[in-house]
Amino acid sequence: MGVITGQRIKLLREEHGYTQRDFAKVIGINNSVLSRIEAGIRPVEDELLSKFASFFHCTADYLLGRSDFRRGRLVTDTELKEFLPPEVVNKNKIEMWVDEAELKPETKKEITELLKKHGYL
């Protein structure tokens, strides 16, 4: 954890219209703690990371810089079977994250193209 986490927390805080002081109060931490987190000086404990993710409706992976998707979710095999042959889904145990509330036709097309490109179809 570090600079990326701090930058993303600061970005989200500002997008939500909070000053550092006000947001620290809402989250229940000291303003100086938030300041050091945003500067990348202080690591974020798991419990606090979970609070940030919950407050901002994003994933911890996004806050940690492991993903560029703020609101990822696991696509179920049932959803994949709607547009992929079931034997492909079952054989390869395909799971993937998408940044969508629903799988839109464009997203289905992109997934299919990626699976073809990597030899799954």
Automatic annotation (TrEMBL):
SUPFAM superfamilies documented for this protein: lambda repressor-like DNA-binding domains
Domain of life according to the entry: Bacteria
GO MF: DNA binding
DNA-binding recorded as keyword: yes
Keywords: DNA-binding
InterPro entries in alphabetical order: Cro/C1-type_HTH, Lambda_DNA-bd_dom_sf
Pfam families for the chain: HTH_3
HTH cro/C1-type domain mapped to chain residues: 9-63
Protein name: Transcriptional regulator, XRE family
Annotated organism of origin: Dethiobacter alkaliphilus AHT 1
